[in-house]
Each structure stands twice: as C-alpha cells, then as structure tokens.
Design a protein that fits this description.
46% of the residues lie in helices and 26% in strands. By secondary structure, the chain is α+β, with helices and mostly antiparallel strands. The protein has one domain: 2-Layer Sandwich (Nonspecific Lipid-transfer Protein, Chain A), CATH 3.30.1050.10. The protein starts with a helix and ends with a helix.
C-alpha cells in the first residue's frame, strides 16, 4: 500500500503546484493523517504549509485516523466507489473532527 500512498501524495502535490485555488485552501493547514489498512499495516503523512509529506510506515497519534481495507481504499481512489458511501456503509472509519473529515474527503477526491 505504500506505493499507492506515494502515488496519491505525488498526485496531490502536483495538484497543489498547478492549482492556485487548491494550494491556497491547504496553505494554512497543518494536520497529521494515519491510515490503518486491514487492521495491520499503518502509514502516516502530514499536510503542512500547502504540501503533503511522504508517507511513512508506522502509527502515530494523528489528527485524522482512517481505518479501511486496502481493497476499499483502492476502489475509492479509482472512483469505483464514493468515499462518502463507503463511510456511510462503515467500510471506512474515520476518527477526527467534522472539519478534518471534510479535509480528508477533499484529499481523496483529487
């Protein structure tokens, strides 16, 4: 899953570099995101000053914690399923504030 996350982060950083509106939206945000796949593999990264850091293996006490199967995550990224639908069906669990859930939703749409 690290390769999938690396691709996602690259895509997001490319969008930040090419889309001023998107970049401005993320400019003042500092959040950490921990994603746990299949209840075993965990990766984290940060949104800092309009940039998304490279994913690292391990678990941290993050602002946003996502628990999801690798299959569902891949389907969300490929737009086979909508992240909100997966959330409502409890296929993806997110521990965060409402504002952070909106941020995550925005990141997954990129």
């Amino acid at each position: 899953m690290k390769e999938v996350l690396n691709d996602l982060v690259k895509k997001l950083n490319d969008k930040i570099a090419s889309d001023q509106t998107y970049a401005k939206k993320l400019q003042s945000i500092t959040k950490s995101i921990d994603i746990v796949f299949d209840d075993k593999d965990s990766y984290y990264f940060k949104v800092e000053n309009g940039h998304i850091t490279e994913p690292q293996e391990g678990k941290i006490d993050a602002d946003i914690t996502v628990t999801v199967s690798s299959d569902v995550f891949n389907k969300i990224l490929s737009k086979e399923i909508n992240a909100m639908d997966a959330y409502m069906k409890q296929q993806i669990k997110i521990k965060s504030s409402l504002m952070d859930k909106l941020l995550l939703s925005d990141l997954l749409k990129a």
